User: Fold this.
Amino acid sequence: MGSYLMQLAIDQTRANGFEQLELGVYSDNARAIHLYEKFGFERYGIQPRAFKLKDGTYRDEIIMVKML
Assistant:
């Protein structure tokens, strides 16, 4: 399902004339990172402690980009 939705988003973005896609993902979300890399996204940078969770812990955010 994730692959189908990702392809749909990429196709729609191209159809709308955009030249790149950008996204952010929790650095510990290995499954999502794998999916994005499978579709050609590359790691662009990291934002440390980007999200504070309810339990007081923090998550880094990996910024990813795909050139269309």
